[in-house]
Amino acid sequence: MHEISLVQGLFQQLKDLAAENKATKIISVTMEIGPLSGVVIDSFQFGFDILSAEESLFQGASLIINSPEVNYRCTGCGYIESTNGARPTECLKCEELLLIPDGGDDLLLLQVEME
Length: 115
Ligand SMILES: [Zn+2]
Prior knowledge:
- The protein has helices spanning 3-20, 41-52; strands spanning 26-33, 62-66, 70-74, 80-83, 99-102, 107-114.
- By secondary structure, the chain is α+β, with helices and mostly antiparallel strands.
């Protein structure tokens, strides 16, 4: 489960941020995790819950995850379908099967609230 190592990396980043800001507590963390980032959000949340319980800096911190939309462009007619759900199986306009995704592969730290 590579999400655990992603959370470890995130926590290292947050520790540095907290040290820079002389903060002793992380209150909330907002992440953007794209549907095509390869990250399983449930696993990421699970890793966050496990690891945050181990260190006082992160205890009680909440994780907010934004999942952005992906634009799927049809190679047949150019129609763009935006969704943050499952990948569309075919173009809604012309039933072409080859759709090219644009975006949605980001794993970003958007905002941190600390004190
Ligand atoms: Zn189409």
